[in-house]
Structures are given as structure tokens and as C-alpha cells.
Write a structure and sequence with these properties.
Two copies of one chain form a homodimer. Chain A is of the alpha+beta class. Chain A contains five helices and ten strands. Chain A has a domain of 146 residues: Nucleoside Triphosphate Pyrophosphohydrolase (Alpha-Beta Complex). In chain A, strands 1, 2, 3, 4, 5, 6 and 7 form a seven-stranded mixed sheet that branches. A three-stranded antiparallel sheet of chain A has the order 8-10-9. In chain A, a hairpin with an 8-residue loop joins strand 2 and strand 3. Chains A and B meet through helix 1, strand 1, strand 5 and strand 6 of A and helix 1, strand 1, strand 5 and strand 6 of B. Chain A binds a DNA duplex through helix 5.
Chain lengths: 264, 264
DNA sequence: GTAATAGTGTCTGTGAGACATTATGGC
DNA sequence: GCCATAATGTCTCACAGACACTATTAC
């Protein structure tokens, strides 16, 4: 910090202000964008075109620009890494990762990453952007370090980030209505139940699920239309606008196949 | 990014790597450290000695150093800003704040702040560190922009950060056992209940509270000692080691005096 | 027809909330 | 004796979980 001069105004201070000469720092936005495809949870990954970790699969990421908030950077990461206006229905900050050395570039620039959690209805296959050799939605169950038996190795500490994102996602389904953001405008309760079942790795009783979801004020609102399914035709619903589910719908004691989270 | 040269190894890449010449960036750790004093929630604030926002009350904060994780920075912020080894019993990352312009220094260095939530038993009055004119625990109810009718104006966007911290704290009491981190090694259930009542701004039924807390496996463990109180002497307990409270203890529909949070 | 699913109904156990009761210590 | 609080007990209601049962559609 500069030496304080009594009586100096804030304007004078800022005009004279010289930031300390540290090794350069950079702030990164990384996005874990999930979607559901055939009742299975998929995650958007890119194959890195350049170093470090060239050729490995990684979360889309971008460096924060000087006049941009980190959330704007996260949205741009999706756009730039996939040459596709992937506009997630839900995007929230997850956590900031700053362990020294987690990015090999730390020897030249210290890279701090602000990870984000996002999800949306399946937009189909994305096109790779400038930094990516390829871009694709990959089953979460295939990721090494995330799911027991997964084989796809991930760059940086992205396996940790994805595990944290999955735990946050599973927890948010309990006490919020964000599950609807995985689905198109209109959906059946069986489709909504599929979100819960895929994320939690359990099966839920259809009857009890319907009773719970329709009983929470504003979670779902029925529309005057039905959809043919394998069995009886199903009532269609929209998201009713409520953000919170009270009381929460707690996930059953875990029997899922994914690596046990540190939580519960 | 550098232009990719096929066949280049990661070592060669890193040796030649030149970070882009952006305006300088800095990453900040800020800490909202709460404690309970006379059944009232207090927050550690410093009075800023230098610009910007000189003389205003602010959260203790420190710039991240090149070889330090952000959590280490947060702990150092407490040590440096208060000349006191304030070792919080609980410290966790809250959220990263990055809106351009939230710090006036953004015109020279872009400052991104990683806010933290911490709490501990009342350590008494702290001494101010080098950047602080004074340091003190201040009642949360006196803070403008946090509590309706509060008068203490806060620097930067710290009122927002503190509100977010309070909401996180209130939520964590519901489904974790962290409330014990506000208390010394041994405590009575009335003291533990006091944490919940102060944070939630409600009163709780003592009988039901005891039944719930002692019923959660590993929340509290009784020690063979009692403490004299105003009435009958009370059994002493320790934290039993459990991290999670399942099922959660939901806070009653809010009647608290604090400004309505955006949540629930 | 059969199989599969939507949607409703019923029973039961758990647990939260409200409240009463008793025990124990300070004054 | 009187008051405050600890600690336990009781009753009721809400709700989750288990498991019917029926209606409707695809094949």
C-alpha cells in the first residue's frame, strides 16, 4: 500500500495509486454444465488444443477480462469454447479454487479459478471453439476421479471441481426447484422425476414424488395439454415460479454408484 | 494465448510462456468473523486507516500472495488486521465478488474478492493491525444495509457480503452441527440454543430443542460435569464429532428483525 | 389380450410443535 | 416460600415411505 498522507482525498489517492508489483495474477471462470440425455447425466467437456494438459478433457474456461464480472466470463467461456450460444437455464457460482500449483502456469501467472455450476435442457452436440480440439457432452459416469470405474482422465483439478459441482447439484435438488431448469418449457412429472433419479442415483416412488411436487406451492403448474408416453398419456406442467421447496425433499440414504462424496 | 506449435512439450511451453499483458489483477480475501456476546451476534470489523473508504468500517481483508492459497490469506487477514492470532474455530469460503467497480481501485488494479465466513467463541477485544485505525466486534443489528435501522455505514459492498454471510450461517445451522464452533470446549444446551436463537432471530422451545439435538447421533456428547445457572444446574456437553444433522432442524417461518433475505 | 405407465388412495411410522409437569437450585 | 430454569413426558398434526389399486395407452 502507499504511505498514507493525512488529509489526502480519495480522488487524490486513486490518481497517485500504484498497485504493488507482484508476479502477475489471473482469474479464470470454469463452468460445469450438466444436462440429461436418455435418463443419464452428461457434462460438457472440451479436449484441450493447447498446453498445459494438451489433449486432456477439461471444463470450458476463460480468463476474466478487465471490465467483466466473473459470471459474464463464465457465460463467455461457454460461447467461446463451443462456438455455440450455449445459454444455460441455470448458472451459479460454485467455489473458488486457489491451491498454489493447481495450474502449471502458476510459475508464470498465478491462476485463480472461480468454478460455476450450470445446467440446461440437452442442446445437442456443440461445436469446438478456438481453444478446443473437440467439445462434447460426456456421461458423468465415465469420468475418472468422479465416478468409481470412470476412465476419462481430466485436466487440472477438474475432477475435484466436478465432484463438488455434483454434490452441490444433488443438495440443491433437495431444497430448491432448480431441477426444472434441466427440462424444456413443458414437461411431465416423470421427466422431472428422472432428473432427481439421475442426479441422486436412486429410484423414487412415482406416486410419492407426484404428491410431494404438486403439493409444494408454485413448483409446477399444470398446462391444459397431455403427452403420449409408453403407458397412459401424461399431464404436462410448467415451472410455477417458486424458487424454494419447503419442507425439502431429502434424498434417500445414498446407494448411488458414484464415488462417495465427503458429505453425508 | 501463445500460438500452438505441434510437438512442443508442456515443459517447453511453460518455459516460453508469457502471460498476456492485461491491466493488473489482484485477489483479495475478506473475512466475516462472527461471535456471540451476551446472546447477541457480533461481527469483527476494522476502521480503515487508508484509502479507499478511509475511516469507514470494513471486513478484515488482505491481498493474496503469490504462493498462498486464498484460505491461508483469509487467516492472515485476521492476524494482520487485528495484531492478534484470531484463530477461528470455523472458516469456510462464502462467495467471490467481482462486479467491476465494486472497489474504486479497479481503475488501476482489478480487485476480485473471495469472501469467507468464520466464527469462534468470543475472544474479547482485538487490537488493530497496520491497516486499521481500530478493530472491534460490532453488533450485527447496528449495521446499515444489513439490519433494518442499522446506522454503521460499511465500506465497499461489505453490507451485501455480510448479508450473504448471515444467510449462509442461518442455513448451515439447519443441516450441520457448526453451531458448536461458536462455543468453548464445554457448553450447556441452553448456550447452544442461544446460538440458534440469536442467528435466526427467533426463540425456540427448550424442550423440543434438547430432544432434537440429543437425538442427532454425534451432535453433542455429555461430559460428567454440570454448571450452575440461574435455575437448576445444567448438564455440560462437548461437540460429538458429527458434521451433519439429519434430518435438518428447519428454522421457523421468519419473524426476525433483520432485513428480509432474498431467500425463502 | 398383455405390458407399461399415470394417477389416486390408504396405512403407518417418524418427528416437529405445543404444552404440561417435575426437579433443582438461587434468592 | 418464590422464581427461574433444566429436563422429561404427552398429545396432535404433518408428512414421508411403502404399497396397494385403477385407468389409460402402446404393442
Amino acid at each position: 500500500m502507499t504511505i498514507e498522507i493525512d488529509g489526502e482525498t480519495e480522488e487524490e489517492f486513486l490518481a497517485a495509486y500504484e498497485p504493488r508489483k507482484y508476479p502477475p495474477m489471473a482469474v479464470n471462470a470454469e463452468v460445469a454444465l450438466f444436462t440429461l440425455r436418455d435418463q443419464e447425466l452428461f457434462l460438457l467437456l472440451i479436449e484441450r488444443r493447447g498446453h498445459p494438459h494438451r489433449g486432456r478433457y477439461a471444463l470450458p474456461s476463460w480468463f476474466m477480462q478487465p471490465h467483466e464480472s466473473i459470471e459474464a466470463t463464465a457465460r463467455r467461456a461457454l460461447a467461446e469454447e463451443t462456438s455455440l450460444a450455449l445459454d444455460p437455464r441455470h448458472l451459479e457460482q460454485l467455489k473458488t479454487y486457489s491451491t498454489p500449483g493447481r495450474d502449471p502456469r502458476d510459475c508464470k501467472v498465478r491462476v485463480t479459478s472461480v468454478a460455476h455450476l450450470a445446467f440446461m435442457p440437452d442442446p445437442g452436440e456443440p461445436e469446438p471453439g478456438t481453444h478446443a480440439r473437440s467439445a462434447a457432452f460426456v456421461p458423468v459416469d465415465d469420468l475418472a476421479g468422479v465416478t468409481e470405474g470412470g476412465t476419462i482422465e481430466l485436466a487440472f483439478d477438474h475432477a475435484t471441481i466436478i465432484s463438488d459441482a455434483l454434490e452441490r447439484l444433488a443438495a440443491k435438488l433437495e431444497y430448491t426447484t432448480v431441477a426444472a431448469a434441466f427440462l424444456p418449457e413443458q414437461f411431465t412429472l416423470a421427466e422431472l422425476r428422472g432428473i432427481y433419479e439421475s442426479v441422486w442415483g436412486t429410484s423414487l416412488d412415482p406416486g410419492n414424488f407426484t404428491r410431494k411436487v404438486t403439493g409444494v406451492d408454485g413448483f409446477v403448474a399444470s398446462v391444459p395439454a397431455r403427452r403420449k408416453t409408453g403407458g397412459r398419456s401424461a399431464q404436462l406442467f410448467t415451472h410455477g415460479g417458486a424458487q424454494w421447496m419447503l419442507p425439502p425433499m431429502l434424498r434417500p440414504a445414498s446407494t448411488g454408484s458414484r464415488r462417495a462424496a465427503t458429505k453425508r
